[in-house]
Design brief:
Layout: E1 5-9, H1 18-29, E2 37-41, H2 47-54, E3 60-63, H3 80-85, E4 90-93, H4 96-101, H5 106-118, E5 122-127, H6 131-135, H7 139-151, E6 162-166, H8 180-198, H9 200-205, E7 208-211, H10 219-223, E8 230-233, H11 240-251
Parallel strand pairs: 1-2, 1-8, 2-3, 3-4, 4-5, 5-6, 6-7, 7-8
This protein binds phosphoenolpyruvate.
Phosphoenolpyruvate is lined by residues 9, 167, 172-173, 211-214, 232-236.
Length: 256
């Protein structure tokens, strides 16, 4: 059975010393929880401080992005090797905000993903449709295109280091959550796609997270669904109380 993962994407928040307090509170709050993996993804500038705060705990550290080159004349970019150097185990890739505001294409996301995994990072690949795409019956086509675009030429053994986050764009930061059954259908579709491409064993093992306005009151109904293995949490992850409530609710999942 896949162990749930609850990941916090802090986005452009808590880049300074607030990050230390927040990560300390999370670390203390999860001390007795061992049936859920907990990951926090602060901004780059806070990674070192947060690592120092959580290194003696079970909380894992991730970044929100990285470049595909390891080094060179790329002003302003961050190498996957630098993430390893500051204690990151994970990196988020292809978030819809990066697709929308930074013009990240499937090719770029695929290159980043390959580079990150090649140095030992775990990648969380985000995929999800926009509202008009769902309304026009295109949600499955869009997600399939995103998966194909970013994963089609990765080496087969890389799949073990990849987590998928299904994040319908219309649910991100809007307070509008996808119905658990609707989300689960997409998760099943993604798992089947992974099965066709990488084999059934990989499909059974891969964690597929849901993301989009997860809050303490809705996580339980999502995580009870067969193919929902956890959550990628934005807004509710930058307050210790709400993030911890989500983790605690996930730890009470009855399906095992
Ligand atoms: C996200 O940014 O990945 C996200 C799911 O945000 P929120 O939880 O705020 O909708």
């Amino acid at each position: 059975m896949r162990k749930p993962l609850i990941a916090g994407n802090w986005k452009l928040n808590k880049g300074g010393k607030d990050a230390v307090q927040l990560s300390r509170n999370i670390k203390e709050g999860v001390r007795d929880i061992n049936n859920v993996d907990v990951l926090i993804c602060p901004p780059f500038t806070a990674l070192m401080r947060v690592y120092e705060t959580i290194k003696d705990s079970s909380v894992k550290l991730g970044a929100q992005n990285c470049f595909y080159e390891m080094e060179g004349a790329y002003t302003g970019e961050i190498s996957p090797l630098f993430l390893i150097d500051v204690g990151c185990e994970y990196v988020i890739m292809g978030h819809s905000e990066r697709r929308q505001y930074f013009a990240e294409t499937e090719d770029i996301i695929g290159m980043k993903l390959k580079s990150a995994v090649s140095v030992g990072l775990n990648a969380i690949l985000c995929a999800g449709e926009k509202l008009e795409e769902r309304e026009n019956g295109k949600a499955f086509d869009v997600v399939k295109r995103q998966l194909e675009g970013s994963l089609s030429d990765i080496p087969e053994d890389y799949i073990q280091k990849i987590t998928i986050a299904y994040e319908p764009v219309w649910a991100i930061g809007t307070g509008r959550t996808c119905e658990p059954d609707v989300a689960n259908k997409m998760h099943r579709f993604i798992r089947n796609w992974i099965g066709e491409k990488f084999g059934n064993k990989s499909a059974e093992k891969i964690r597929i997270l849901y993301g989009g306005s997860i809050k303490p009151h809705n996580i339980s109904s999502l995580i009870e669904k067969e193919d929902i293995d956890g959550g990628l949490v934005g807004g509710a992850s930058i307050k210790a109380n709400s993030f911890l409530e989500i983790i605690i609710a996930a730890s009470k999942r009855t399906r095992y």
